[in-house]
Specification:
Layout lengths: L9 H20 L3 H20 L1 H14 L2 H17 L3 H25 L21 H19 L4 H24 L5 H32 L10
Helix pairs in contact: 1-8, 3-7, 4-5, 4-6, 5-6, 5-8, 6-7, 6-8, 7-8
Amino acid sequence: MQPQIRHPHAFRIAAVLTALFVVLLALVAARWGPLLDADQDVVVPLHRSALDHPGWTGTNRVLTDWIWDPWAMRALTAVMVLWLLLRRERTSALWVVVTAAAGTALQQGVKALLDRPRPHWVNPVDSAHYAAFPSGHALTATVTFGLLLWLLKLHGASALWQRLATAVAAVSVLGVGFTRLYLGVHWPTDVLGGWLLGAALVAWAVTTYPYTVIHRAERKSPSDGRVRP
């Protein structure tokens, strides 16, 4: 089956997501009062709940440290890349690597630039390093599952597999965001920033990918009519 590489709405989606992230970044950098108040209104009751329910807190720590940890997401990305390389789909494999690497570089760069403090608690239930905005867990999960859904679409996976993958992706992306808030290591706007930036990166990858395939096809000799993604 010939992969469907064109996604007509990808550019618009990428532009909107990027604009939303930039607006959020500006508001966080300006320490806009209503936004900071909203952050506090969410994390304070969640922290109280985490203190009152140690069993549920432990479950959230397992989920965030093992199931949805950025290194677990990178391992899933490596599996995708290996699968593509075994199929000799080097362009797709490269696109996955570049998008994942860009996500890591961008979130670390924004963290260093903004240097936003994480929530501070007298009695913390978990700890985390580096600056708060954007959430690396939220961004990495969004990029990883976004790329997985794109590859399934690209290769014409059945509707059933795409629906199952979408359900797993939604639970994972939303779930990891919740764990970071429940454990008191991020503000809601950190998680939202990670989701927006991660989704924007995937959308830009989907937008630009067809042009790479077309350019590669044009460089092939006339005798080789096949173009692998």
